[in-house]
Specification:
single chain, elongated, 0% strand, mainly alpha, Four Helix Bundle (Hemerythrin (Met), subunit A)
């Protein structure tokens, strides 16, 4: 059975690979391909956030009986990352590699901490509390990738 942990952690890795490739391309001065990979990364992350915010978090919150706690923290971090995506997109449009790479470094640190919290705490909590329903949501998520 697919679990929230396995599906969402795999999606983290997929997004990380796209992010890394975009950074390599921008770093080497290949702006056309770097822009394409950055936009693919941004879109993959926004889809990931949507899967969490629209499906997983509400199911978990309904089971827990409140919206406070770990999902609230994750949503706040998503907002922070969305702002960095916007700033990075401006750097891509301006072909400003120093700005892009600086923002990329900041985003990498935030993503690493965010993903660790989800993978080590939130997703296992979801697997435990949502059980089969969480697995069904995770299967829907993996089919959308």
């Amino acid at each position: 059975m697919t679990t929230v942990s396995t599906a969402m952690t795999a999606d983290h890795r997929r997004c990380d690979e796209i992010f890394s490739r975009a950074e390599e391309l921008v770093s080497s001065g290949n702006w056309p391909d770097g822009e394409e990979r950055f936009l693919a990364f941004r879109d993959a992350m926004l889809t990931h956030f949507s899967m969490e915010e629209d499906r997983l978090f509400p199911a978990f919150e309904q089971h827990m009986g409140h919206t406070m706690g770990p999902t609230q923290v994750m949503r706040m971090e998503h907002i922070q990352m969305r702002q960095l995506f916007s700033d990075m997109e401006q750097a891509v449009e301006a072909r400003d590699d120093a700005q892009y790479l600086g923002l990329s470094e900041t985003l990498m640190m935030i993503m690493q901490q965010h993903n660790m919290k989800e993978e080590r705490m939130l997703y296992p909590m979801m697997d435990q509390t949502l059980g089969k329903a969480g697995g069904e949501i995770a299967q829907l998520i993996t089919r959308q990738e």
